[in-house]
Amino acid sequence: MLKTYSYPKFEYRTPPEIASGRTLKVPVVVVGAGPVGLGTALDLQLQGVPVLLLDEDDTVSIGSRGVCYAKRALEILDRYGIGEAVCRKGVSWNVGRTFFREQEVYNFNLVPEPDHHRPGMVNLQQYYLEEYLATRAAALPGIDLRWKNKVASVTPSGRTVTLKVDTEDGGYTVETDWLIAADGARSPIRRMLGLEIEGKIFMDRFLIADVVMKADFPAERWFWFDPPFHPGQSVLLHKQADSVFRIDFQLGWDADPEEEKKPENVLPRIRAMLGDQREFELEWVSVYTFQCRRMGEFNHGRVLFVGDAAHQVSPFGARGANSGLQDADNLGWKLKLVMDGKAPEALLDSYSEERIFAADENLLNSTRSTDFITPKSKASRTFRNAVLGLAKDHAFGRALVNSGRLSVPAFLTTSSLNTPDDAADSFAGRMVPGAPMDDAPLLDKGKAGWLVDKVGQQFFALYFADDPGSLDAATIDALSTLSAGGIPVQVLVISRKPGTVAGGIPVLQDSRGIAAQRYDATPGTVYLLRPDQHVAARWRTLDAKKVKAAVAKATCNA
What we know:
The chain is α/β, with parallel strands linked by helices. Helix content is 29%, strand content 28%.
């Protein structure tokens, strides 16, 4: 039991299939009700896809585990209906500071410019996130959430997958069109199918200590190299909800995990850091080892892998749950189109392609961070310490400091789904095809809102105008005919001036020009957005045929 949190116990219900002996047939099964499995189920529910969600436990994660949720993940959680709850309960922060011994040598700001809805990061213990997601999933139609249901076997066969599920009341059989494995780093489903995950396990151990204390520390990330209270090693401090502070102590590979978790060994480390006068209570302790690994492919016939089941990174950089939620965000709309017969199964190859690209980016950054934090030779340690010594006074040294490059969404610039810019078009800024959308404040019928909240779940076309009343009939007709092949495209006019457009096309007012600036948009500019809020294509002038062709390419129908 924790001092600040009471674990919920979700209700187990006897599956009706046990008594009837019938095979349950469902379109999609998700296995694993952690953050990524729950997020995947909610994403599919928003798409109108019924989901059977199975988990072998009946509560949320034990201990705080993942704690940092990045701006992009928060925007996804907004769509799932829990973003506000996470931000309200969690600790928002943008600033991180890095210390070498007793001196600050480097700091950063995750959101250096104003006018973004969500902060760079929110710290919140994983058990809260899971509870919010589970409560949301249980309240929605279309998600059959079954606790204490353990998958015993998986048998793919042609266009279906058969699962044997065990419960305390007996077993039953499920036949599904699609199986999504969100069952964690040790993934029993991956093992049952004989699939491999390859990569690197780092020869070091870290101690996690969650402590409850009253402290006026600012809501920032603090990282120390070789501090006087833990010489020769590194330490990380994060503030969480309920006055809980996460402290990570580097231990070295030779440390005995069971001995290090004992209070008589943990408490002296914390007192050395905080001082004897600081009162605190120990909340939770764990020891972990870094792993940077991934599967060769994330889709295997009718079985799709998401989150830690597909890829694993070290915790420095907050890339685990954040990248897993982006897996769900990428997969949901693609699976929906395939299931509806509006896209070929090749679209699911693009899920693997794009999320492997993102995973490799995360693995590279995570590996570099880990190598910097835990140098394995005298020479690399000497280099690392020299960089830290230079960083205080020299910008080039600060650029080399790596205490965990923090999670950012992948810019899918190499994706086969992108339509490249026309040769005649010239754009500045970072909203290139494949980029995750930048947010911006807008007015919707005079009411303040945010651009990212207005799009998603389907294709959108943004048409930038100075005055919506000035659009001619030909432009309005073209904007009204962008849907193609049964795939709808919703049009939004982004205008500096208030007004309306004939035909009922919605108008969002960009009165301060922030959206136009971030998208380098001039009157007549068009952006095509994917359902997962990535840029698919952009043009300086509207051509309905080009928009339809870009939709076809983004859905593998070209």
